[in-house]
Amino acid sequence: MKIKVVKDILSANEQIAQRNRQLFDGNKVFAVNLMSSPGAGKTSLILQTIKRLKGKTRVGVVEGDISSSLDAEAISKEGVPVVQINTGGECHLDANMTSTALPSLPLADIELLLIENVGNLVCPAEFALGEHKKVLISSTPEGDDKPFKYPLMFHLVDAVLINKIDLLPYLKFDTDAFSQAIKGINKGAEIFPISCATGQGIEKWVSWLLTQMNQRQS
Amino acid sequence: MKIKVVKDILSANEQIAQRNRQLFDGNKVFAVNLMSSPGAGKTSLILQTIKRLKGKTRVGVVEGDISSSLDAEAISKEGVPVVQINTGGECHLDANMTSTALPSLPLADIELLLIENVGNLVCPAEFALGEHKKVLISSTPEGDDKPFKYPLMFHLVDAVLINKIDLLPYLKFDTDAFSQAIKGINKGAEIFPISCATGQGIEKWVSWLLTQMNQRQS
Fold it and tell me: I need a labelling partner for B203 at 20 to 30 A (CA). Which of A74, A92, A160, A172 fits?
């Protein structure tokens, strides 16, 4: 009985996600669902990505949080359109919340839509939003055992960003072992070691992102 | 309709949590529910706590993870009784999972039971397990804005451990601002800055824990 309810929710979510995707495609918007643990660096990555793309690609942002609008405020300072979703306790975004937020964005003027999910390595993996790509930010202080503990998340994503590599000298974190663990769960995942604090590796990530976007739109 | 289902689940959980509590009290077990983001240091804290209490207090551990038994293996090396719960996708422990695990532990021989919840700042806050105290481990690399983003978790707990203070020189983290934000949400919360890597602050935490335990049992 319980499983049936969950299935119904997931399939209703899937239908709305498909409608979101049609809306994105109709407006030539490339949408990316950014997921991570709390504090792994989603907002910092969005800020870095906006800076690199300034004058090149029109970016829009959806900010998902349980409460507060701290992240949306930080992003609006960069002069890009942003809408905040407060989930009111829910531990993830879903397609319907996303759909409700989209009319607040000038989709016709946006080429790349970065959707920041709620900080959580579990629930967001189960809910499609209509995005073209799913990206996970994993940060070095979280430890290199995370792929074994949150396998669904690592399995589902198109790319894993290893953030906070500037802290590597002060941590026990084996980047090779971590990358191998990811590849064991998800052979096709792209892996980008980055530091949002120093900017290291951001260029490669942005270049990959633009390639994905251009492949989609051509 | 959806809200009703959630309420029913929560109230069924509450009933089982009360039965767990009776079992703990009947066996003079002091139970602590340890919660945090992924990789904030729950297992490291348990290992540090076991080491400090060796020969003084008989400790037992319940390990909650979505999958894998890495943490339980690390803890069993310390020679304390440990049982692993794999939630099979669920993003939190609940009272029933805990209840199912308890017969695997020699409760009559345990004075302090440390229950490591799934790494998640959202869902675990909603499910009582029958514990006497709820403790949150927040780590400095996650950033000092977390109380605003996960208010329910910070509101509910009896103590907040600020872990990884050894990394403070390399981070933008304002310990005073963080502590004030916690106090704004939860006046009575005890706050302990610690480092599981260096051992700093662990003594104070263990001393508080023993005081709580002794007050309960006297």
Answer: A172
Distance CA A135, CA B217 (A): 49
Tell me the average pLDDT across B81-102: 95
SS percent in chain A: helix, strand, coil, step 5: 50, 20, 35
| Pair of tokens at residue B45 | 């804290």
The percentage of chain B sitting over the pLDDT mark of 90, rounded to a whole number, equals 92
Contact A45, A159 (CB under 8 A): no
Asked if A99 and A62 count as a contact pair (C-beta separation under 8 A), the reply is no
Closest by Cα among B177, B191, B120 to B152: B120
| C-alpha closest to that of A75 among A111, A21, A108, A113 | A113
pTM exceeding the 0.90 threshold for the entire prediction: yes
Q: Do A39 and B167 touch (CB under 8 A)?
A: no
- Mean pLDDT value across chain A: 95
H or E element in which residue B62 lies: strand B59-65
Q: Which of residues 84-143 of A touch B (CB under 8 A)?
A: 89, 91, 118-123, 139, 141-143
Q: CA of B144: how far to CAs of A39, A177, A210, B22, B41, in Å?
A: 9, 29, 32, 37, 16
A149 vs B38: CB contact, 8 Å cut-off? Answer: yes
- Phi/psi zone of residue B143: left (φ > 0), alpha (ψ -120 to 50 degrees), beta? left
Looking at the partner chain, which of A38, A121, A150 has a beta carbon nearest the beta carbon of B146?
Answer: A38
Residues B50, B51, B52, B53: what is their CA dihedral angle, to the nearest 10 degrees? 50
> Do residues A134 and A33 make contact, with C-beta atoms less than 8 angstroms apart?
yes
Query: How far is A52 from chain B, CA to nearest CA, in Å?
Result: 22
DSSP-derived secondary structure letter, A54: T
The two three-digit tokens of residue B83, written as one number: 């049982």
Q: What angle do CA A191, A194, A197 make, to 5 degrees?
A: 160
- Rounded Cα gap, residues B31 and B18, in angstroms: 13
